């Protein structure tokens, strides 16, 4: 991955929902074959595996589903049914082509999801909780749509875990969670180049009480 790769740097620089929609509208068609393949992007595989390892079952909501890489990984592990939500209709269009999602929900997570309380037995997210994307305040909304006992596997960029308030959010939500485990893992594979090649994420695995 090149230091001046515009898509990655632009993603980390996002500040508003409008900027997110604009960036991903132009990235959707080449995200898998360009960015993901060229960098050996693997975070979605770790998130899906963490969910399956903790005994996660459907129905599952893939949060910030993008082009559906995480949903595809979940399906390969036998997890179903899976629903996708993302702010970008173009990314969701690509996700639905993979044939692993029961439905797509276009929504801005920071403004709330058009989903009833206690809907899902699992919540998985890969690459959404990082700088320029969605912050820890969204955890409350995800807990709302999750059933009691629901399993979670959420990736969070290590560099921003404390500075963006994710650590404090877990402290605040402690009484509503159980079995919290934070596992550090690589985001990109060995083919990645440049300043981001060694970036890591924490996979936060836990249950809703």
Quick summary:
With 209 residues, this protein is α/β, with parallel strands linked by helices. It is 33% helix and 26% strand. The termini are far apart.
Question: What keywords describe this structure?
Answer:
8 helices; Rossmann fold; alpha/beta; 26% strand; globular; seven-stranded mixed sheet; 209 residues; disordered N terminus
What does this structure look like?
The chain has a single domain, classed as 3-Layer(aba) Sandwich (Rossmann fold). The chain is 33% helix and 26% strand. The protein is built from eight helices and seven strands, in the order ααααβαβαββαβαββ. Strand 1 (60-63), helix 5 and strand 2 (82-86) form a beta-alpha-beta unit.
Count the E strands: 7
Order of helices and strands: HHHHEHEHEEHEHEE
Tell the overall outline. Answer: globular
Distance between the termini: 40 Å
The computed structural class is alpha/beta
Structural topology:
Blueprint: H1 6-12, H2 17-27, H3 31-39, H4 43-53, E1 60-63, H5 69-76, E2 82-86, H6 89-96, E3 103-106, E4 120-129, H7 139-145, E5 146-157, H8 166-173, E6 177-186, E7 200-208
Parallel strand pairs: 1-2, 1-4, 2-3, 4-5
Antiparallel strand pairs: 5-7, 6-7
Helix pairs in contact: 4-5
